[in-house]
Structure formats: structure tokens, C-alpha cells
Amino acid sequence: MGSSGYTCIRRTFCCLNVLVMLCGGIFLGMGLWLHLSYQGYATLYPSHLGLSADSLFILIGGLSIVISFFGCCGSFFESRCCLIIYFSLIIVLFLSEFIVGALVFVFRSGIARAVTMDIKDGIVKHYNATDRGGMFSPSVSSIWDRMQMELQCCGVNSYEDWYHIEHWEREKWVPKSCCRTRHTLSPELFEGSGYDVDDDCRKKQRPELWWSQGCSKAIQMLLIQKLHVVGIVAIVIAFFQLFGLIISMLLFCTIKHKRKSDTYKSYSPTIDSSGLRQSYLDD
């Protein structure tokens, strides 16, 4: 590899890792802020707070910072040790993604049933129509209301999932977000929403006024429609991981060869006649 090509690849790799580290820092900061200020919010899975938005942000941010740190140090300081750690972390991350994906695919039916039951339990115990959360940390109630209005669905499997929840015990009611639109020209007006409506459809026990489709089926249909987006995201992530593996090994081998060959002698730190220390960064 020529001197200019080696320097370009090393510096580009270093800059990309610095960018990833900065993005990881933003995710980590947002996760810590959500965790300290709005703990337990922004999740449809209240019984497992590890899957809440704050925990996911902290996990993504922490992994990004650690991995990119070793990649940046390895390329900037020409450290073979940091590069091999970076390479190993990417391999572990890739294998973890593959194993988790394979397990989810094999046990998808059982996992779907378990998740559905836990989400139903979250509705029963944690839905509170008066608790809306915040803009960046919506509550369970806010998430469900927004999802049901946008996807035009009600409950996990059906509107019956809302019967007898703790917020309205011994009542067969549903949230207002389950009500079908009253006026086709004004989608924001819902039956029972309070806009020139005397009746409250959520308390009428009239299923014909509610969305009949469950949200689990609506989400499945949405994912199928957006499958190309999921595919693009997966390809982009795989590309960056593969890019990191190739470049880290390329730099590792080049540094090893450089230290044993006169070809890269000019890139080793030297002392000029004036006594000033020069480095490959001076190129």
C-alpha cells in the first residue's frame, strides 16, 4: 500500500470513529436524561423496564462509545492492540446480532405469545388516562392513545383487552382513542372526544363505535408495508460493521509490516537535525 493511501485510510477511519463516538455520546446523554427525569416512561413493556427508551439509548450510546474509542485510538496512535480489540468487539457484536435474530426467528411464536401477554398485563396495571408524560418521554397511556389513533386499532388483540383494567375496574370501557372518527371531513373529531358530542362512546359499550382491529395485527401489517425500510437499515448496519472489520485488519497488517520494512520508514517518528520530533502526522 502506498504512503498516501495508507495515510488517507487511517485518517478517514479515525474521523469516522470520532463521529460515531460523538453520536454515541448524544444517545448516552439522552438516555441518562430520560432515566433520571422520567424513569419508566416511553415503554409499552412496563414489566421489563430494560426495554424502555432510556435503557435502549444508554445501551446503544455506551456500545458506540466503547467500540469507536478503540477504533479511533488504534488508527490515530497506530496501536495494534487497540485495533485487535476493536476487531474482536465488532465480531462479538455481529455474532450476537446473528444469534439473537436466529433465536427470535426459531421461537417467534412463543416469544410473540409471551410479549402479547406481558403487554396486556401492562395495559391492565399501568394505563392511566390522566398520566400523559412529556414530549420526549411519553407515558404508557400517551403511547397507546397515539398508536391507536394513528393505526386505527383498539387493544392488543381486540377492544376486550381494555375491559376491567385497574383504571376503571368492573367497567367494560375503552380509551377515547379507540373511538372511530365521527366526521370524515374532520379526522380529529372522535366519538366521545368532547367536540360537540353529547355521548361518550368509550363508555357506551357499543363495539360498533370502536375500532375492531387489534393493534398487534395493525403493527404486523405496518411492518410488512415498511419491510424495505427494515431491509435498508439492516444492510447499512451490516455494511458499517463489515467496513470496520476490513479496515481494522488492513491497518493492523500494514502497521505490522511497516515496523518490519524500510518501505514505511518515513512514517516512523524521527528526530531531525534541529532536535524536533517528527511524526507521520506531519505528512
From TrEMBL:
Q: Which cysteines are joined by disulfide bonds?
A: C154-C178
The record's annotation in SUPFAM superfamilies points to: Tetraspanin (SSF48652)
Q: Which Pfam families match?
A: Tetraspanin (PF00335)
Can the keyword Transmembrane be found in this entry's annotation? yes
Gene Ontology terms: cellular component = plasma membrane
Q: Where in the cell is it found?
A: Membrane
Q: Which UniProt keywords apply?
A: Disulfide bond, Membrane, Transmembrane, Transmembrane helix
Keyword Transmembrane appears in the UniProt entry: yes
The UniProt entry lists membrane topology as: Multi-pass membrane protein
> Which family does the entry's similarity section mention?
Belongs to the tetraspanin (TM4SF) family.
Which residue windows are transmembrane per the record? Answer: 12-36, 56-77, 84-107, 229-255
Protein's recorded name: Tetraspanin
